[in-house]
Specification:
Structural class: alpha/beta
CATH architecture of the largest domain: 3-Layer(aba) Sandwich
Helix content: 40-55%
GO molecular function, one term: carbohydrate derivative binding
Radius of gyration: 19 Å
Protein name: SIS domain-containing protein
CATH class of the largest domain: Alpha Beta
Number of strands: 10
Order of helices and strands: HHHEHEHEHEHEHHHEHEEHEEH
Shape: globular
Keywords: Repeat
Number of domains: 2
Largest sheet: 5 strands, parallel
Distance between the termini: 43 Å
Pfam families: SIS
Strand order of the largest sheet: 2-1-3-4-5
Amino acid sequence: MVQTHTYQEIKRQPETWRQTIGMALSRADEVKQTFAALQPEEVIFTGCGTSYYVSIAAAAAFQEKTGLPAWSVPASEVFLNPGSVFSKKRKTILVGCSRSGNTTEVVRAIEFARQNKLAHCFAITTRPSSQLADKADTVFHLSHVQENSVVMTGSFTNMLLAAQLLAGILPGDEAYLGELKRLPEIGEDVIARVESLAKDIGKDRNFSHYIYLGMGAQFGLANEGMLKLKEMTQLFSETFNPLEFRHGPISVLDEKCRVILLSSQSIRPYERDVVDDVRKFGANALVIGDRLEDFQCDIKIELNSGLTDLARGVLYLPFLQLLAYYRTLDLGLNPDRPRNLDKVVLLKN
């Protein structure tokens, strides 16, 4: 098998996580001082595509860990519909996420917020020499995460991890930071165990419709899993909150549908009922998470992390990425260069 850029970038993720952890912790005092000086009343995470899904997961973790109101919006909303994004009565920090640092909507969002004095602007990017890094007030540089593939894999998990570390640093949550520090070692074990499963499942052509389910921070992760399959294979894939799935979308289930649940232990009884309904209506149910022995499903992907729901986040992604990768190869497509996509989306002036 030819090892594509996508494959190499998926496999190397645990080592890049180590470097992201070191970078963030080395800047802990600086970040605390910045937030202490600004006294923000809300934090808004923004991005486009994969980076928007980073923002969804990051905002959920940030609010739960810091107690500060936090939410996510697509970057275009920031400068095209600012009245629905910003409250003039609140001190705001805007966190822009972008692999390239040159995505037009994210750059314009930061520019707009600064020019109109709407927010202190924080950037998370893999490119220190980029428009986003130049225009933001504070920057987390992830220069150790450089990708050649059009498809974002390690950049997603590292930007999310950087945001999670920020959420642990600010309140001084040593227990949470301790969990995050364990991710590289656990991630190496997870990838070694799940790759063969991802390969076998990816080659299964019995399913042409994929549905990803996740709640809270896992909703952002489920969206990212969906996007990897959609952009690499062009297969029909979509994402829902697991309980919302019953309110209409469940009507599409049939024997050609595979439902992938990113399980959270905190809502386990509700998830079990959803999985039971998925199987009752003839679809295939795959569950990924920790301690899955009480699920009655078709496939279980045990992470065996021993971590809490909010700390475990990036561990779901290697399996989902590898599943999409192997399905792409089975279809005879190039995972590094998906159809109709460029590495950076640039808008005309």
